[in-house]
Design goal:
The chain is α+β, with helices and mostly antiparallel strands and about 475 residues long. It has helices spanning about 45-50, 110-115, 120-135, 140-145, 160-165, 170-195, 210-225, 295-305, 320-330, 345-350, 375-380, 385-390, 395-400, 410-430, 435-445, 445-480, 480-485; strands spanning about 1-5, 55, 60-65, 70-75, 85-90, 95, 225-230, 235-245, 250, 260-265, 270-275, 290, 315-320, 360-365, 370. The protein binds S-adenosylmethionine.
Length: about 475
């Protein structure tokens, strides 16, 4: 097991801000003002939604909130639970497959470029469509697009120093991957545009560079929602990411007062996307929806913010027998054999995909599981010498953290103490302590540094919370009479 932070210092940092900024580029996170829009005086978005056949509750307004949330929606009067707050008919959401309002086919160059976007970077695909509409004079969606933020606080726009300031290798890897992709895709787009021939320019002759591609990808990753049931050409239906004008002004909370629903049928044969009040909403309450059970890695990468005390945040570690031995010995476990498992133990490790050809050595701590089931099962199994005792249990039981210790209290105590020692090692791999980070924040730093430092404080807090949780479990196990007997 090696702490995931260890390779941070060896990473080659890519950052879109390191590049010369061509004319068409967009502001980076270092100078990020969440309320600044593409058009400094954008047209009335609520009025446009109503004019185009959508519904906006008379007590819902756009609030010009200050950072960190940017703009949001707010209730001007009490709104009863169950009320429709916003409803968008089929024609208002912007998706990749939605062709122009004039019924034209999708631009073939755009389709070709979209086919080169890796599946996991799906936001870039819809981003191409957004850039197309952004470039189009008289676009149907112009009111919507001009109301979009002009910059995003996602780490691809951080200065290199703040990418490094994240101190967490799995995130650094993702940021680098996205930056590298955008730099390569800029060349791909350039090639496609230089070989247009008789085909029409998808961006109306305008230049597109890595920074405008990054703007579009971030606009989509931070604002698109997956809608189900949209019909494809062969009339089957798939989940499709769509940009939902006005609905995407709702900020996130894990205790939301509103939610998105989709409706079809009745007098409304077309698909309707709605936001409905999930609770009674009081006057001046902001409207919040839940973006999902996401870790802070995803909140930061896709949305450009970090949720403090996020119950879904986790730390990724690499399973490594040698380090587990060291952690276990540091925890006072005598002769652990994580690096030299017996044949029967290796078989179980293979089943857990922690050994063998199809091994996936990434394991997590934190989140609702506290310790990933595969890691917990591996520890329990490798700390037990009696194969028959282990084989009495289903793997699902060995993977689950419950008050019952499946292989006995002594085994459970050794497993928990090993995880706590691992946590201590993972904490040591961070170059700074939480107290150092807090004093950096107190000094007042640029917004990208603040985000990076807040992110790493939260990661360290996840580790500390796991240590606390397991210490409590150890206390509770020790308080049981049978430990004395076994001990
Ligand atoms: C779907 S948009 C919501 C509208 C956005 N605030 C705006 O100004 O247009 C998502 C973005 O809002 C901000 N945001 C949403 N919820 C937030 C939260 N709980 N904390 C901080 N920022 C939040 C982030 O910038 C995020 O990328």
């Amino acid at each position: 097991m090696s702490a995931a932070t260890s390779s941070a210092s060896r990473t080659l940092f890519y950052s879109l801000t390191l590049r010369r900024r061509p004319l068409s580029s967009f502001s980076a996170a270092a100078s990020y003002f969440p309320s600044m829009r593409l058009d400094p005086n954008p047209p009335d978005l609520i009025g446009w939604v109503r004019k185009e056949g959508g519904f906006v509750h008379p007590s819902v307004n756009i609030s010009r909130d200050e950072p960190p949330h940017g703009l949001g929606l707010v209730a001007s009067q009490d709104i009863p639970k169950g009320s429709d707050l916003i409803a968008l008919p089929d024609r208002l959401p912007l998706g990749f497959d939605v062709d122009g309002r004039d019924g034209t086919e999708a631009n073939p160059v755009l389709v070709e470029l979209a086919s080169k976007v890796p599946v996991e970077l799906w936001a870039m695909k819809l981003g191409l469509r957004l850039l197309q509409e952004r470039a189009k004079v008289g676009s149907f969606w112009w009111t919507y697009i001009s109301n979009l933020p002009e910059a995003y606080s996602v780490p691809i726009f951080f200065p290199g120093e703040d990418i490094k300031n994240l101190q967490y290798a799995p995130l650094l890897y993702q940021v680098n991957k996205r930056c590298r992709f955008l730099l390569e895709f800029e060349r791909e787009v350039g090639r496609a545009l230089s070989e247009l021939g008789s085909r029409s320019h998808p961006f109306e002759g305008k230049d597109v560079d890595s920074s405008s591609l990054g703007w579009a990808m971030s606009a989509v990753s931070s604002r698109a929602f997956r809608l189900h049931g949209r019909k494809t050409g062969d009339s089957s239906s798939v989940d499709t990411p769509m940009m939902l004008p006005l609905i995407d002004m709702c900020n996130h909370s894990f205790s939301p007062n509103a939610r998105i629903v989709q409706e079809r049928g009745g007098p409304m044969p077309e698909m309707l996307v709605k936001v409905v009040a999930e609770k009674e909403i009081q006057a001046n309450d902001p409207l919040f929806i839940n973006y999902g059970a996401l870790s802070n890695d995803l909140f930061l990468l896709d949305y450009g913010f970090v949720v403090p005390s996020n119950p879904y945040d986790m730390i990724e570690l690499k399973y490594d027998g040698g380090l587990l031995d060291a952690a276990s010995m540091a925890a006072g476990v005598t002769s652990p054999n994580f690096s030299t498992p017996a044949t029967w133990q290796k078989e179980i490790l293979s089943e857990l995909k922690l050994d063998g050809e199809s091994a996936d050595l990434k394991v997590t701590i934190g989140g609702s599981d506290v310790v990933e089931g595969r890691l917990l099962a591996a520890l329990r199994v490798l700390l037990e010498t009696d194969a028959s005792k282990v084989q009495r249990h289903e793997l699902s039981i060995l993977k689950s953290l419950s008050p019952e210790a499946p292989l006995g209290t002594v085994n459970e105590l050794a497993a928990f103490r090993t995880v706590i020692a691992l946590c201590a090692i993972a904490l040591e791999h961070f170059p700074t302590k939480i107290t150092d980070d807090e004093s950096i924040l107190r000094k007042g730093v640029p917004s990208s540094t603040e985000l990076a430092v807040t992110f790493r404080i939260q990661k360290k807090s996840v580790i500390i919370d796991v240590m606390r949780d397991l210490s409590k479990r150890i206390k509770s196990l020790l308080s049981k009479d049978d430990v004395v007997a076994q001990g």
